[in-house]
Amino acid sequence: MENSLLNSLTRHHKTGRRLLILSLLYSIPVLVSMTPITDPDIWLHLRTGQWIVEHWTVPTTDPFSNYGIGKPWIAYSWLFDLLVYSLYRAFGLTGVVAYTVALSLSIAVALHTVVWRLQPHFTFAAAITALGLISLFPLLNPRPWLFTILFFVVELHLLLEAREHGNARGLLFLPPLFALWANLHIQFVYGLFLLGLAAAEPLISRSLRFAPAEAGSKTISYGCLLLVLPACALATLATPYHIQLYYVILDYIGQNNPSHYIKEHMPLEFRSPFEWSVLVLTLCAVFAIGWRRQVRIFAIALLVAGIFLSFRSRRDLWFVVICAVTTIASFRSKESVIQGFRVTKLRATLVGVSILIALMLIGRIRNISEGHLQETVVKTYPEKAAAIVEQRGYPGPLYNPYHWGDYLIWRLPNLPVAMDGRTNLHGDKRIERAFKTWAGGREWASDPELAAARLVIADVNLALTSLLRLDPRFELVYEDKVAAVFVARAQDEER
């Protein structure tokens, strides 16, 4: 009797501890993503969504910049643009934050599900997932790439399930997934790469005389994958732009300068704990592959691709994180035993309640209210400067720094910008020249776009702003702690 009672208490203790671990694990993305909006990219998405609603179609030429007017432009994340604009119209900036929290939490659940299926040890699986989520911290902001991360994890899960059980019925979900993915974010191509690698694995393994499979695993039908892959590729054409999406991909592949000037395109610098956690995960994954005698070429090739993409550009660090986490999770020592823990309705409810409590607590601590979010916008972006331009009716052409272009597209919709975050539209040469001009390079005064400008909205922290104070071509008409506004003197004389 005493032993039975002791065993029952032990089981309840373990269950309570695991529920606490799950609650803490799923609170990680909530803690990170529930922050004020400082990512400049969201403003272009909001303005594009607004434009689509106003015109009842998707843009095919650029309506937002002086340089791009009349030039072909594809809003490849048009469905995401509509989503965030709809949330903004209904809930304001709070709706945009809610999107980030919801997608970040979905990524956490999807990633933990994959890890849990691969790794039988409950605590170890939770720890691996937590490290992966910590590594993803820099990417948990209101971007369409959150859909890419989520869909990539889902796709990987379906492929691993098909491999483990030899049943490819789950792969039937992939074509509709890719159709949705292609309308949300252009990085669906990474999903096609993943599927193509799975399809090519038998041929690569055979040519390299690699071990055909791990013990206990099965092989997906090669013919099935050869059918699923073109079906998914065709599904990506189910967008308003069809084959033109792939032209954008080629443009991005051919670009070089963004990696020199734009932070999110730069390689990892290992100056933050999040980037070091990426390195730790990668090294652990390499060790896990080297420790095992039988490893499929799929795992090796996927990790190598992840290392190449993620260490080349920090915006793609999610790729190696997901590959590393799943590789580590598939490592099982001889002592590993399956620890039974079923997710019942009651347990799921308890975890859900814990997350709701975390949402309320974090929201109250960080004051994620509409008023506070708007205050952050005023402190981060040239809101007051834009209001002055709007009130006084200063005409363009406008000259502005790269990092404010997206916000000004949203805030001053009737004034085309000089430069914004669409690197494929503006091209390497214009981006390089703009950055050099704003940095006060030797040829700043002869920049033709600056010379043609009648209005400059400048970041007070950039070198060009100080130079313009002494430039006889421009007059300072407004300044605050964030921005300064200059107008061409010839314009004032005409008035």
How is the secondary structure organized here?
Layout: H1 2-33, H2 41-55, H3 78-91, H4 93-118, H5 122-135, H6 145-165, H7 174-184, H8 188-208, H9 222-235, H10 244-253, H11 258-261, H12 273-291, H13 297-312, H14 317-329, H15 345-366, H16 370-380, H17 383-392, E1 398-399, H18 405-411, H19 423-438, H20 448-452, E2 455-459, H21 463-469, E3 474-479, E4 483-488, H22 489-494
Parallel strand pairs: 1-2
Antiparallel strand pairs: 2-4, 3-4
Helix pairs in contact: 1-4, 1-5, 1-15, 2-3, 2-18, 3-4, 4-5, 4-6, 4-14, 5-12, 5-14, 6-7, 6-8, 7-9, 8-9, 8-13, 12-13, 12-14, 13-14
Describe this entry's structure for a reader:
The structure is a single chain. With 495 residues, the chain is mainly α. It folds into two domains: 336 residues, no CATH class; 114 residues, no CATH class. It is built from 22 helices and four strands. It has a four-stranded mixed β-sheet with strand order 1-2-4-3, sandwiched between helices. α3 packs across α4, α4 runs parallel beside α14 and α13 runs antiparallel to α14. The radius of gyration is 26 Å and the shape is globular. It starts with a helix and ends with a helix.
Summarize the structure.
With 495 residues, the protein is mainly alpha-helical. The chain is 63% helix and 4% strand.
Number of helices: 22
Low-confidence stretches: 5-10, 333-338, 491-495
Radius of gyration: 26 Å
Q: Helical residue percent?
A: 55-70%
Shape type: globular
Helix/strand order, N-terminal first: HHHHHHHHHHHHHHHHHEHHHEHEEH
Overall residue-averaged pLDDT value: 84
| Overall SS class | mainly alpha
Strand order of the largest sheet: 1-2-4-3
Q: How many beta strands in the DSSP annotation? A: 4
In angstroms, what separates the terminal alpha carbons?
97 Å
Largest sheet: 4 strands, mixed
Give the domain tally. 2
Indicate the proportion of strand residues. under 5%
